[in-house]
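Page header: ASSEMBLY MODEL / four components / 466 residues total.
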Amino acid sequence: MTKAAERIDRVSRSQVDKFEERRKTLADAAIQTLSELGYARTSLREIAQNSAFSHGVLHYYFRDKVDLITYCVRQYKAHCVQRYDQIVATARTGDALAQGFAEGLVQTLRDEALMHRLWYDLRSQSLFEESFRADVLEIDQSLERMIWRIVSRFAELGDARLVVPSPVAYAMFDGLFQQALLHYLSGSGNALADLRERVLQLLPHLVCPSQSGTTQPGARLVAAHQQRASHSA
Amino acid sequence: MTKAAERIDRVSRSQVDKFEERRKTLADAAIQTLSELGYARTSLREIAQNSAFSHGVLHYYFRDKVDLITYCVRQYKAHCVQRYDQIVATARTGDALAQGFAEGLVQTLRDEALMHRLWYDLRSQSLFEESFRADVLEIDQSLERMIWRIVSRFAELGDARLVVPSPVAYAMFDGLFQQALLHYLSGSGNALADLRERVLQLLPHLVCPSQSGTTQPGARLVAAHQQRASHSA
DNA sequence: AAGGCTTCTGGACAACTGTCAAGACTTTCC
DNA sequence: GGAAAGTCTTGACAGTTGTCCAGAAGCCTT
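Prediction written out in full:
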């Protein structure tokens, strides 16, 4: 075994690339199967049936099932984060950014619902299977950073200050999207419109204008939180 | 077959109760197993091993595995919602309610982390297995109502109006809790303190004072939502 | 063309799964 | 006390699972 490891030292680069390429191909088949059946019902034979190969080859390219799924989780990450940075780069007003962000989430929900139900499935699995946890946490952090870039830019365009830290912002939109996904897959026709509406409604609440001399209702509470030590008991 | 259904018409009430009682006992064993292993790895034999009975008895009290797990999901619901209504009833100030709510979430995370990772696991499963979906949605709604009672009371105590509708409020706290759970189970020592801090910080942002004559930013959105909320309630 | 390496197949294995049924034990009721 | 109903155990079944392996097939160098 460990052919994969041995190869790297011996063979030419083109062969290494071909080996890595096939791993990606098989991982694609695995991801497709996982997004259709879910982690609990996905077997190696089913994955192979969604590929051009037989089930035995999976153990030629991956040590075991955990190795394969871990690789899938990593591959999923690359596919996941790229969409929204373009929105951040092109939007020239806060409104446009909010619209683009909301529309992006709606499109993601409509076009990649199965992909994202896989993500939530795997993230839940990572609560039980320690092997996935590191990769899941890494993806989670990169998603959080993506959300942070969006809300930061939104605040910047509106000349405002953010009143929630990065983890809170991510948790909120993640919760909204997960809720929308559940209702969307349950056949609710309003899920897409609801998601758009709620995102557009929520985004302005994350900032408060910074130029005004009068203290906004949220600002005091932010300051109050700053010295939270006196409260937590 | 369908002994459970036949019995109800024939036998005495005490026997029905005993039958129902055993179902609950077995469901408890199942829930314990599920919360330890997760849905994907939980088998009927493993459940039976966590009970005082052998594996065959499960098919005497439940039609099949889906029937058992569905029953478990329903039983989980009863166990879940009760904790926070007492906090709502006893808190006499907004600050006290916020403190109680945050502390309740922290305690829940600390004491029942495994239970709630089961909940998130099953909710993810319902994205694939249609059988669970109705019950999951019902639990989700009852959790949403619980959150709504809390934030409503919080607004009432502060003589303020809520600026987010019920689904958004639930999605936000659900996202925060899920995030905290992931980090808590990953061994992060800050998870509990972070959750408390973030809940206390977030709660005030959901309301804006209602006595002010000036229109707050977002007040229009609140008004737009007001009729939706009353419609769905 | 031959040999060696890589890639892939298909079958075998043991373990495990949900399901079921035959029978033993227990309780209830007349 | 004995029959009937309810309860539970045990073992079996067919199917599936992850894993492994012997060898076929493809590919490249010599």
